[in-house]
Amino acid sequence: MASNGQIKITLNKRPATERLKVILLGLGLKKTNSTKVLQATPAIKGMVAKVSHLVTVEDVR
Hints:
The protein is 31% helix and 28% strand. It is an alpha+beta fold.
């Protein structure tokens, strides 16, 4: 992941628990294959780490 700048997050799989659903909503991902470009802040990186098995992350330059 980029140390600063932006990252592109794509939801690949549906979450199994309510806790993961809340994290994905916080990232702005609601449906499978939805994509968001967000700033690579420590808070966003932490959220992505929790749902890393459900999403694909790419650097945006």
